[in-house]
């Protein structure tokens, strides 16, 4: 059996760690990967610190099919993702001519008298061998290097980049989840759920408590790439729920 | 100089990795830690898989003052956090009598004829030596073991637990951030910001692009425990912004 493709995400962002910004990139990428049949196995939020980025890249790149990073590819001093990734991969950090060309044309078009600054040029520096990931929202591209996809941190730009690269990702069977909300506490269905999970080890069976209008309930989630087995499990759940 | 206290979070949750649920716990804990002067240095979202939990716990517990986990402490088969942590710490996994007592009283009070089930009792199992972290929303407690704080995954329950334990955390100087939004693109202020960062290495100076009503701008964030130096930096920023 072919191994299903997997993914990990590194969110590079002091603004998430300080609580200033709510991360939205994880959920977007997670949902897109799910549709593509790529299993997201881990997300790390780390600080904008070179040694932390290098460590995370080196450790995670060998543990998954696709490694995504978000954040830190802009023109300012705290944008250190590209250089850190170059170091992590022992690659030169140099100007990508295609990126420079795109950036120069954009800034020239915007204002013919505007000097193309060092900060503008910074966004063209990438690890040697990078392939650009364009986006429809801004000029500055993300890039792919080895199995690493380096994306912007701003959600709408990141999303635009992801849409561009999506067709290049080789997925597996779509991972489909079915949810069932019941107004029964988790404790009362725990035993039956555990038995079903035991009988169907290839199905991922999750149970999440909720409270709505003061009433406790449980969301039961059945996740699998095998829709036939999912349906059997769902029928079993319906059957025992009726008896509780 | 005394080292500032640091923290890391492990979010244990297939529901986050599948994109089904938006994680809200990171931002809440991050903001609370900030107020307490505890620096959050990393967040990991991992799957409900024993070996992953053990690996993350062992690796991260020695790298921070406080390690928080959220999720996986309920009564169902997929709640494996407590047992995995016991294994990670080479501690026995057994009934905490205080927790059992609380749970029994609650279920007896709720329904005198209700049998106290195995699933109910599961929530009293903890690593040997655990100290309870009660909460005002439910009966099931979280717990502290060594420097690890094991909290619920459901946000309002997690928050209630966090409020209970908060006063036991020894913080540092409050970490205060000042934000400044300017309608100037990042590239145009990159050089000045870099110079200020260089002159004030103890200040964390962040720069985040935004777009509002079609207009690009930059949020500049000055973060420090030293309010005097923050003010000097803010003044410098105001001065150069006026010239751009």
Q: What oligomeric arrangement do these chains adopt?
A: homodimer
Helix proportion range of chain A: 25-40%
Separation of the first and last Cα atoms of chain A: 39 Å
Mean pLDDT of chain A: 94
The tally of helices of chain A reads 9
Structural class of chain A: alpha/beta
Strands across the major sheet of chain A, in which order?
2-1-3-8-7-6
Characteristics of this structure?
homodimer; alpha/beta; 6-stranded mixed sheet; 11 strands
How would you describe the overall organization of this protein?
The structure is a homodimer of 244-residue chains. With 244 residues, chain A is of the alpha/beta class. In chain A, 40% of the residues lie in helices and 26% in strands. The first copy, chain A, contains nine helices and eleven strands. The first copy, chain A, has helices spanning 14-17, 25-36, 50-61, 81-88, 97-110, 118-122, 155-165, 186-199, 227-243, and strands at residues 6-12, 39-46, 66-70, 93-95, 125-127, 131-133, 142-145, 148-151, 176-182, 204-212, 215-224. In chain A, a hairpin with a 2-residue loop joins β10 and β11 (215-224). In chain A, α8 packs antiparallel against α9. The mean pLDDT of chain A is 94. Chains A and B meet through α1, α2, β2, α6 and α8 of A and α1, α2, β2, α6 and α8 of B.
